[in-house]
TrEMBL record:
Protein name: Bifunctional enzyme IspD/IspF
Membrane-traversing stretches: none
Domain of life, source organism: Eukaryota
InterPro entries, per database record: Integrase_H2C2 (IPR041588)
Upper lineage: Eukaryota, Metazoa, Ecdysozoa, Arthropoda, Hexapoda
Record domain Integrase zinc-binding: where: 83-120
Underlying gene: ispDF_1
Length: 121
């Protein structure tokens, strides 16, 4: 059944998770194939894991910290991807055209983008 009207925040989150999962499967197939030998060195250092939803997240030492999952284990996004550009643009506009340092801080609350500083400039 098709719904008409605005989408709920739950629907938005589910759609975002689906888009991110598809992008991750395209850009990081070696992680989903569980082939650690073929991982680029840049990704090996990040202690990547697949969460309960199927998203790739960055591991780290914050596992026991009293923070949200997004803060402890940000979602991995590829550096060169249209979806990543759209997310960066959205965060930039929502935060009133913040500067590069503020943009990195806002992005890193939920996402981990390799070489993000170069993309934000």
């Amino acid at each position: 059944k098709r719904r008409i009207g605005t989408i709920s925040s739950t629907e938005f989150d589910q759609a975002q998770e689906l888009c991110i999962t598809l992008v991750q499967q395209y850009h990081f197939p070696e992680v989903f194939k569980r082939d650690p030998q073929s991982l680029p060195t840049e990704l090996k250092k990040l202690a990547i894991f697949i969460d309960h939803v199927g998203l790739l997240r960055v591991g780290g030492r914050l596992a026991n910290a009293p923070l949200s999952t997004d803060h402890k284990h940000p979602v991995l996004l590829p550096a060169r991807c249209h979806l990543t550009e759209l997310i960066i643009d959205h965060v930039h506009k929502v935060n009133f055209h913040a500067g590069p340092s503020a943009m990195l801080a806002f992005l890193r609350q939920k996402f981990w983008i390799p070489r993000a500083r170069n993309l934000v400039r």
